[in-house]
Design a protein that fits this description.
This protein has about 270 residues and is α/β, with parallel strands linked by helices. It contains twelve helices and 14 strands. Helix 2 runs parallel beside helix 12. The radius of gyration is 18 Å and the shape is globular. This is Cof-type HAD-IIB family hydrolase.
Length: about 270
């Protein structure tokens, strides 16, 4: 019996216009009405999903979100951190420099601020288009306190440019940190062991919900860990092939309210 559902945003709950369909809203409400907890699992910070939580009826202190790809499990509305993992402060700039040397634009993402490193010629960061809700400033304004509270470094650039550089990323970086794509055009670097899977396990433990009663829904590389951890793994119809390969159930795509289809499929097994 499902007691907790973790749902990715982009390419999953959101359609291609970054909106939540009425069917998806109603399905989430139906789950909540049956006592099933619903948590958003995203690479975004809490500030960037408040409007979505409002639409779903989740923006209260009774609900939680997995933000920064599981780096911060946070109580909605109050913003209280339940678990938190940040990058080592003395490694933030060295990691950024290794990426900049590959002509990849880099930003450092803190709790409520994004710090921009000088961009390589011809390759500006596109992260501000994804995160218009957050304030951006130059890295020269990142003091020691801010540098000790960086959740992730993000490369947001043209998909073909990123793809052409992926194999050049140092193996040591992949060994020492969690390096994964959240979109074809976006790469994220987080502390080793930080992913949506460990964030979801932390939340389930907090809520006292067994792993077998947890369902996760996603579509991208950064969703793999939580689908692998969850008792029930749901891949979107538009998901990557490696995500579909580990799924227990493949639902419709994000343009056709695949989240609603999956929730209703598994809610049908719950007593009404």
């Amino acid at each position: 019996m499902v007691k907790l559902i973790a749902i990715d945003l982009d390419g999953t709950l959101l359609d291609d216009h970054k909106e939540i369909s009425q069917a998806n809203k109603e399905a989430v409400q139906a789950a909540l009405a049956q006592g099933v907890e619903v948590a958003i699992a995203t690479g975004r910070p809490l500030e960037a999903i408040q409007h979505l939580l409002d639409q779903l009826g989740l923006n209260t202190a009774d609900h939680y979100s997995l933000t920064y790809n599981g780096g911060l499990v946070i109580q909605n509305y109050l913003g209280e951190a339940m678990s938190k993992r940040t990058l080592p402060s003395d490694q933030v700039t060295p990691i950024a420099q290794s990426l900049l040397s590959l002509d990849l634009p880099v930003v450092a993402v803190g709790l409520d601020q994004v710090y921009e490193y000088p961009y390589p010629d011809g390759h500006p960061s596109n992260y501000h288009k994804t995160m218009p809700f957050l304030p951006f400033t130059g890295v020269e304004n990142m003091d020691s306190d801010a540098q000790s509270a960086i959740f992730k470094l993000v490369v947001a650039t043209e998909a073909d440019h990123l793809a052409s550089r992926l194999e050049e990323i140092p193996e040591s970086l992949r060994n020492d940190y969690s390096v994964m794509q959240s979109h074809p055009h976006q790469l994220e670097i987080m502390p080793k062991g930080v992913d949506k899977g460990q964030g979801l396990s932390q939340l389930a433990k907090l809520l006292g919900i067994p792993q077998a009663q947890v369902m996760a829904i996603g579509d991208e590389e950064n969703d793999l860990a939580m689908l692998q951890w969850a008792g029930i793994a749901v891949a979107m119809g538009n998901a990557r092939s490696d995500v579909k390969a580990i799924a227990d159930y493949v639902t419709a795509n994000n343009q056709d309210s695949g989240v609603a289809q999956a929730i209703r499929h598994f809610l049908a097994e719950l007593p009404h």
